[in-house]
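Limitations

Structures in this collection are predictions, not experimental determinations, and the ligand pose is part of the prediction. Treat each record accordingly. The example that follows, with beta-D-glucopyranuronic acid as the small molecule, is included so readers can see exactly what is and is not provided: the inputs are given verbatim, and the output is the predicted complex.
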Amino acid sequence: MARGPAGAAAVLGPLLWGCALALQGGMLYPRESPSRERKELDGLWSFRADFSDNRRQGFEQQWYRTPLRESGPTLDMPVPSSFNDVGQDGRLRSFVGWVWYEREVTLPQRWTQDLGTRVVLRIGSAHYYAIVWVNGVHVAEHEGGHLPFEADVSKLVQSGPLSSCRITIAINNTLTPHTLPPGTILYQKDTSKYPKGYFVQNTHFDFFNYAGLHRPVLLYTTPTIYIDDITITTGMDQNTGLVNYKVFVQGSEHFQLEVRLLDEEGKVVAQGTGDQGQLQVPSAYLWWPYLMHEHPAYLYSLEVRLTAQTEAGPVSDFYALPVGIRTVAVTENQFLINGKPFYFHGVNKHEDADIRGKGFDWPLLVKDFNLLRWLGANSFRTSHYPYAEEVMQLCDRYGIVVIDESPGVGIVLTQSYSNVSLQHHLEVMEELVRRDKNHPAVVMWSVANEPASYLKPAGYYFKTLIAHTKDLDPSRPVTFVTNSNYEADLGAPYVDVICVNSYYSWYHDYGHMEVIQLQLATQFEKWYRTYQKPIIQSEYGAETIAGFHQDPPLMFSEEYQKGLLEQYHLVLDQKRKEYVVGELIWNFADFMTDQSPQRAMGNKKGIFTRQRQPKGAAFLLRERYWKLANETRCSFFRRL
Ligand code: BDP
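Predicted complex:
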């Protein structure tokens, strides 16, 4: 959560549907408009890791007070990117502690001189804990590596003759039992084996803890009276689309709001006034998932215009939000989108690639979406943390359905079920819902992945977390992804959809693909009999080294991956006629993990390599997904 300069917790205030939340203010994606400008700060920043023993030299010497280069040697660091893999220094790759980023920015004169302009610094994500200074003045702190935060820096940049500002960001990647994801620091005290002060960061999740400024950093402007947030929910009444809107304004209590909904041709199809209301769209085009309709992903544009009178004259602010009209519902055995049964045939992903680590990258984004569409995938889960906003926007535009997951991965220690942890997890869900609530592509929230949901405190923890998420957003189902035994899972009673991960004939019965059908069928039957809720096979897969071939198949070969998938598909094809509503392969692409004897340079369960080249299983899955699309829909789709 973002804290003000004094580090004080933000005050309680209403955000969605009138329920009390800890978060203050909105987090609208910064879009240009006649009243708003943007200045992207991507590119090279100065960088220094604090290698001092206690990692606190930067604070002791106040590196934020003067240009970073004056503190000692700095490196050029690209933003967005993880810092770990861009250099040749092994110590930086595995660094744990504070790193420092700095960038000098020249601002347009109007931004520094027009007091009617509000200047905001927005950081797409900083993993994990960040402190921000502008011109040496503390402006923000934020905990959590996967969600954006902002600071209003108007006063600082408008207070003197300077037309430039110096942004310093200190980031700490240390994970503790109360962070999300959790981790532990292990000090090795045996001086016969380890040097003095030796410690390692341990985690309970299976991906590398990349760190740095992973997503775009930018400055943008609004007027001082401005549209702070918009909440949209949509529905259908026969052929009429319903768009319920609520607009939140900051800076004045006296203003007028006009709202217009435009179709893709730019024609106004509905309009209204005031800060909330319902727009009705006769013969509306619905937002359909990819491969569920000939014209998927129809997006309207909601144009919001704010006008106000001030002593200095009239003020206006303008924001345009893409809106998809669609409904989501869950029955005992179906997942419905626009009232029709939806079957998830998709993938689990990671934000991960060579060199840039978890850094956002446009070519990678476009390549991944081209691969998804080639594959015939209609959905993915943001395993195991929220992805960049730009990813979510493309899902809206392409009709790729998203299960939006929090960074609640690896919650296995009893300490991570404490009130401190729960409170933080609730705040993270608030930040996630605040950021992603208006994306039609998001059809379900996932609060966690494979927590130790059999531990005693897990019942209360998940009951509270899921209830809070539903309060925040009553329009979407909520789940968490389990690998617990159906009888021992204390969270399952509270979810809307059972998402279950299993690795038959991989982590058990090595090499024995002949047991998969029986074990998988038993899994589905037991979960369904116990809970009568729709089930998604949210992970399954096999480690596969691209280019390893062996027939008859052996583990790690491309043939084994294909063979294992085929066994799963036989059962999925039976159960999808009953209550199984989806299958998501683990994983879309190979990805980096911590080093261990189980991982040969990362996790290799991708159907694509880390460089996004297909293994044999990608072709098998492509056949299946296009077949599924054509079998379950009314019209025929020609493969890309
Ligand atoms: C699952 C985890 C996932 C791992 C996967 C694996 O949810 O994060 O990467 O196992 O072992 O249990 O490949």
